[in-house]
Amino acid sequence: MTTQPTLEAPSAEHSHDPNEHADSESARRAAEDIVSYARYSLCQPIAALSPDELFNAVALSVRGRLVDGLFETDRRIRERDPKTLNYLSIEYLLGRSLGAHLDSLGLRATYRDALRLLGADLEAVERAEPDAALGNGGLGRLAACFLDSLATLDLPAWGYGINYEYGLFKQELRDGNQLEKPDNWLVRQSPWQIERYDEAQSVPVYGRVEHAVDRSGNYNPMWLDWQVITGVPHDMLIPGHGGRSVQRLRLYTARSSQSFDMQIFNAGDYLKAMERQVASENVSKVLYPSDTGQSGKELRLLQEYFLVACAMRDIVSRFERDHSSFEELPGKVAVQLNDTHPALAIVELMRVLVDEKSLAWTAAWDITRATFGYTNHSLAAEALERWPVALMERLLPRHLQLIYEINRRLLLQVGAHFRGDTAKLARMSLIEESAFPEVRMSHLAMAGSHAVNGVSRVHSQLVQENIARDYHDLDPAAFASVTNGVSQRRWILQANPGLASLLTRRVGPAWLTRLEAIRELEPLAEDEAFQREFAAVKHANKLRLARYIHDSSRLAVDPDSLFDVHVKRFHAYKRQLLKVLHIVHDYLALLDGGAAPALPRTYIFAGKAAPGYQRAKQVIKLVNDVARVINADRRAHDYMRVVFLPDYRVTLGELIIPAADLGEQLSTAGTEASGTSNMKLALNGAIGVCTADGANLELRDEVGAENLFMFGSSVEQVQALRRGGYRPADYRDSDPSVRRLLDALGSDLFSPGQRGFHDWVVQTLLDPRDEHLHLADLASYLEAQERAARTYAARSDWLRRSIWNVARSGRFSSDRAVREYAREIWKISPV
Amino acid sequence: MQLSVEISGDVAVVALFVDELDASNTAEFKQQIAPTLAEHQKLVIDLGAVRFIDSSGLGAMLSCLRQLSAKGGDLKLCGLSRSVRSAFELVRLHRVLDIHATRSEAVKAFSA
């Protein structure tokens, strides 16, 4: 079992100079504020607070400042009544907030000094904050970066999500296997959350539709006999940089509408009395319950509707406060669907407009389409949600009726547009017909949105050519592309204060809100003095990570070795396996011929596998088995170290990414929609080993192919290989080193005494159905790694390219992405 | 459950004095209102005191309407709070039931 050391906060050399002091009066007042919160909110004298409680007192004090900013933002919005964005996402991967909020508000020095006055240390207080891990990976982190950018750009916006009691699991390792432990992040209640019981929403589910007529004799389907779940909002306040705007992320907690049945309780059956309450509250219990079983599927659909119903009712009631006609809705409200999970929002708005507000169908549909935008995040079949019609009918019978009507009208339109093309009708139908028909959620999202976008240029193109081809043919103007971005406030200022400080000294502070400004670094890329400063920052970050690795796994790594980093979810298409092949290849070269690698490397992995995804978990086990053997082999001692850091999360990313020299982006071309770790790594000076996939291609356009290590098949080559019959055995038969590699993996070299334990690797690699074409890209990948090693050895050349990566990554700010959405899709303006 | 019944001409006006009309008390409500339903054709139910209604409560209202309709009568509602009215709108019952703001408006509507 691994132990988890505390993550080291990056503050010793934080950009905001530790020697910089706030004026003593503001520090004294902040200290009094903290003492007051400790006393009156936590009911403790300051001296008696545990580290967790001290964090709560400090956070409550900072929250007070955020509330002031929120009121001021609300006042401006009330005065101007602007169009507002509502961002619906099933995930938000926020990480820690204290440091980010202090930096946004310009209060770091004040609180550092305040805590010194109280005999405490700000960095230690920051470390006490648990990560808010209400997300799984890139999708949730993107949502968090977008909220940061929206507030920074003063764009009026609300985020909506679910207040999961348990975030993504905590990952531990046992004998190299992933072990999932619950992440009860709310166990102490988050001081950032403000409960708003008065604004709770009642969410009906289940029941039946009764076909009746109204008082005028018209058909009037009535949704009867439902059960109610109550959605209680918990607001988290998100400040923009500079603190001028503060916005809300509204997360809903599911509560039972009734406490429990008193009669059953009094009869002594306490468990039964609580049964219904517990079932209702399960809805916000856990992020992504396993959907392998029927009950898991039902819970997931329930979660999606719960989010959608709460959010849409809240949005409609806010709109109705100041407006009387729903025709105004698209001019005042934009709703963005972050993937298909919240796609039922389209049906929910139709239900509200048609059933509750009595609008005619056509008017309601026009309003709905003009209101929604949909972002597609994946082409993978598994990511294209489908819900069994039977399940939908049981949970949401009225919504299914509405889906049928949307579909009927859509197919009439398609039929009129593409006369005689019955295949198109079948492909575009919202219902996939079979013995067990299903609702296609991506089709629903496309049909009900005026704008559909992919998240990188190549991904958007593939969306239009593949899953959305028919919809694109019907309405090409609805399709757009907005390349993802990341927040420089999180991924440089918070994660890499040394670099932040250097950037501010050299190009001024403009980069914090206009990342394109870092292009001014370009002339410094060959400046020796600057290179030394830049290298010193990287070295300090590597030392920091090396200390963490030592504390967490008792493994000494050399900070002068090349830090080769692969951090992301474990998934077949991300090809962690290719990275393992590279490591084993170098190790075998050392064993067989004594050919030492060109330079010492530390291979660093981090990432989680979905609990039900056995193959990804096997890859984690493989990485750890390879690591155990190599790290124990004295022959490899001076050249290779393999590290798997458990429990990858935002805070760990903030530690690893600034220390990376090489950033691995190995996805099979055409599979990664965008990727954002490529952007985070480039911004921190890591040079990418990249396939021609997702946003890697745009990174190449910005920094130049010569400043990356591109490799592997292009999208077209991948398609041709798959079409032409991929024959992986040919690579083995024509290259002895590939054969040697496969033999080693099939032996007990990495599973002593358990020959055949990793046979699945060999089978996967030699399987002509290996859709990720590992062996086709292997030679090119190994060659790219050799180039990387040669370049790293030429120190000045490496630094020049590394600086160039930073200087040319300004486009990958989430500020740019959000500006594009605001201008092209949401049509919102700063307030 | 406390119900009050007032007679205004040929209209019976029933007021409910409960915070919530839900699965825990709709059976009792149906039992208590049964004699009034049997005796009258024109009925107003004043929901002014009700803060929450669930699908059982809505079902009870629909049941009252159907019993009255079966004998040529009608049901009108009044005094609905915003959240209670939302529940009626949710199931489209507001299109089936005649809903008025006040008791006097509801009574008057019978003579319109």
Radius of gyration of chain B, taken over Cα atoms and rounded to an integer in Å: 13 Å
Instruction: Please give the share of residues in helix of chain B.
Output: 40-55%
Q: Low-confidence runs of chain B (pLDDT<50, min 5 residues)?
A: none
| Proportion in helices of chain A | 40-55%
Oligomer: heterodimer
Q: What's the overall average pLDDT of chain B, rounded? A: 95
Tally of helical segments of chain A:
33
Q: Count the E strands of chain B.
A: 7
Gyration radius of chain A, in Å: 27 Å
Strand content of chain B: 25-35%
The global form of chain A is globular
Question: Can you offer a commentary on this structure?
Answer:
The complex is a heterodimer of chains A (831) and B (112). Chain A is of the alpha/beta class. Chain A has 33 helices and 25 strands. In chain A, the strands form 6 sheets. In chain A, strands 1, 4, 7, 8, 11, 12, 13, 14, 18 and 19 form a 10-stranded mixed β-sheet that branches. In chain A, strands 22-21-20-23-24-25 form a 6-stranded parallel β-sheet, sandwiched between helices. The longest helix of chain A is centred in the N-terminal third of the chain and has 30 residues, at 51-80. Chain A is globular and about 90 Å long. Residues 1-6 and 8-15 of chain A have low confidence and may be disordered. Chain B is an alpha/beta fold and 112 residues long. Chain B has 4 helices and 7 strands, in the order βββαββαβαβα. In chain B, the strands form 2 sheets. In chain B, strands 1-2-4-6-7 form a 5-stranded mixed β-sheet. In chain B, α3 links the parallel β6 (74-78) and β7. In chain B, α1 packs parallel to α2. At the A-B interface, β10 of A face α2 and α3 of B.
